[in-house]
User: What shape does this take?
Amino acid sequence: MIVTILFAIIILMGCIALLSIRVILKKDGRFPDMHVGNQAALREKGIYCAKTQDRVEAGKKNLFERMDLN
Assistant: This one.
């Protein structure tokens, strides 16, 4: 049982090390930003994060405007 747990911990440590190589070795390295609002391709398609979409919909005045399915 302990051997299995140690083996799992070693595998997890190896995975974390492999995932962070780019961040560690690159000057000013950062993990890539995966937020929907920061992706140019999604913005061009009119896809925003949930908070932004809620804000846009709340700004519409009546039910007819909210149901507009362009």
